[in-house]
Amino acid sequence: MQLFSSWTGGDFLLFYTMLLGLCTVAAWWIPAHLREPGRSGESSDPETLAMLAGGRERLADSLLVDLFVRGGLAAADDGKLIVAQPGVPATPAGKELLALDAPITLAEARKRIGVHAERLAARLRRNGLMLRPEELARLRWLSIAPFGALLMLGLYRQRAGAALGEPTGFLVALLALTVVLAVFRFMKTDPRTIAGIAAVAEARKRSARLARAPQAEEAAMAVALFGTAVLVGTPWEPVHAMRQQGSSSDSGSSSGDSDSGSGCGGGCGGCGG
Amino acid sequence: MTATDNPLWHRIAAHTIGPPDAPLTFAARLARENRWQAAHAERVIGEYRRFCYLAVTVGEEMTPSDAVDQAWHLHLTYSRDYWQVFCPKVLGADLHHGPTRGGGQERDRFYRQYAATLAAYEAAFGEAPPGDIWPAAHRRFSVDPRGVRVNFSDGIFLSRRVALAVGLIVLAAGWLAGRTM
Q1: Do residue A232 and residue B106 have CB atoms under 8 angstroms apart?
Q2: Is the ipTM of this complex over 0.85?
Q3: Interface of A with B in 230-269 (CB under 8 A)
Q4: Minimal Cα–Cα distance from B158 to chain A, Å?
């Protein structure tokens, strides 16, 4: 128990805080640089890209907007979605959602497509775009290893200090922060390979226009790549509102003031002057 | 054939709106009325030309961004140029301006037209429209329509950032004054 015994509590806290900063940098550097390269591949269908870009949650969002655009789902009075036309053509995952008879909740939607999401994930792993479970686990543990080492060091000093009757409240708070950061890093580790990340980036670049104003047939792809925020200001905003239920939404109201023109006999207007 | 290979596009690109030697040119007036930099106004006019090309060639109603619409509005006030030169001799068609009748259905219609315009733009010109002139739907249909005509002689107008900064300074000054008195 001699290590750091000559250090004051303040010295050690400063040292620990600096190491915590370095560990945090390392925890983000490691997954960025030690990730499996995977295999380059191009995905073009919304379901695959949704799974690759945002996992099961994004897949559910993309399916919901696809069904909403095509009339399979409609907005209910309470801001939820209900099945309006169960018979609209849909993918197997979409059919799972159309089979729901009560107002659709996000949790239920995500649960219902679980099997399809897992199937898609397995295909993405085979194609080298997502990490295999053992690769993801290794990356997760590697990412939080610096936090683990730091935690051991801090615990050692905390126990030594407590044994001598020193106040260790600040150190305990820093230890708790270390655990929180480690858990966050562990849970939020990106499950994609480098090739998978690049595939999504390339698709986003290729479809940048969709982030501004997707057409009806592009809505599912827009949500797959950019999330439901792209639906704000569109006729399909209820899907975003449902997604945001329970949290504040910035959708605002729309006035609908616009102008249009065509060279083939559109409406005639004028603004004087 | 891409847009840049089309003779129509070359005619549109070559057309000058209003007398170029006037003390207040079309571009300068557009910049003044919208409080834009001259370079931005020129870019908006460039996008207006592209919009006109699409409106004539796509074969369905197109919807411009608010900035492009401002250029269109101003061009319509140059009525001799617009109706006697630009439409018949440059576009070869009458390009009418149709404001919304209001209501939810119109809103949906204009959104779909705006989305179709962006898609047609990309197809014709091989690049996405610039985001600062062709903004996202939320900005186009919820924020931009709130714009109104104001006269700076009638009042004091502050941007949100300046107003917030002034408010914070006043608050801090009040707090300090309270502490010292």
Answers
A1: no
A2: no
A3: 230, 232-235, 251-269
A4: 22
Q: Are residues B26 and B95 in the same domain?
A: yes
Interchain contact, A263 vs B94, CB within 8 Å: yes
Mutate to test the interface with A, among B100, B106, B121, B122 (most CBs of A within 10 A): B100
Quote the domain boundaries for residue B163: 151-181
pLDDT digits (tens, 9 = 90+) for A65-74: 999 999 998 8
- From the list A249, A244, A219, the residue with the least C-alpha distance to A231 is A219
Q: Which residues contact A130 (CB under 8 A, 6 or more apart)?
A: A38, A52, A121, A124, A191, A192, A193, A196
Inter-chain touch B137–A261, beta carbons under 8 Å: no
Instruction: List the single residue in A with minimal CA-CA distance to B113.
Output: A260
Which residues from B are below 8 Å from A265, CB to CB?
Answer: 94, 96
Query: Which residues of chain A have a CB within 8 Å of the CB of B71?
Result: none
Q: What is the pTM of this model?
A: 0.80
Q: Which of B55, B134, B138 is opposite residue A233, by nearest beta carbon?
A: B138
Q: Check whether residue B136 and residue B158 sit in a common domain.
A: no
A-B C-beta contacts closer than 8 Å: 155
Report the residue of chain A nearest B54, measured CA to CA.
A262
Tell me, yes or no, whether B144 and B155 share the same domain: no
If asked whether residues B111 and B58 sit together in one domain, one would say: yes
Tell me the pLDDT tens digit for each residue of B85-133.
999 999 999 999 988 888 888 888 999 999 999 999 999 999 999 999 9
Q: Which of B7, B26, B5 is nearest to B17 (CA)?
A: B26
Interface touch A254/B112, C-beta < 8 Å: no
Q: How many residues does chain A have?
A: 273
- Indicate whether B93 and B170 sit together in one domain: no
DSSP characters over chain A: --TTTTS-HHHHHHHHHHHHHHHHHHHHHHHHHSS---------SHHHHHHHHHHHHHHHHHHHHHHHHTTSEEE-TTS-EEES-TTS---HHHHHHHT--SPB-HHHHHHHTHHHHHHHHHHHHHTTSB--HHHHHHHHHHHHHHHHHHHHHHHHHHHHHHHTT---HHHHHHHHHHHHHHHHHHHT---B-HHHHHHHHHHHHHTGGGGT---GGGHHHHHHHH-GGGGTTSTTHHHHHHHHTTS-----------EEEETTT--------
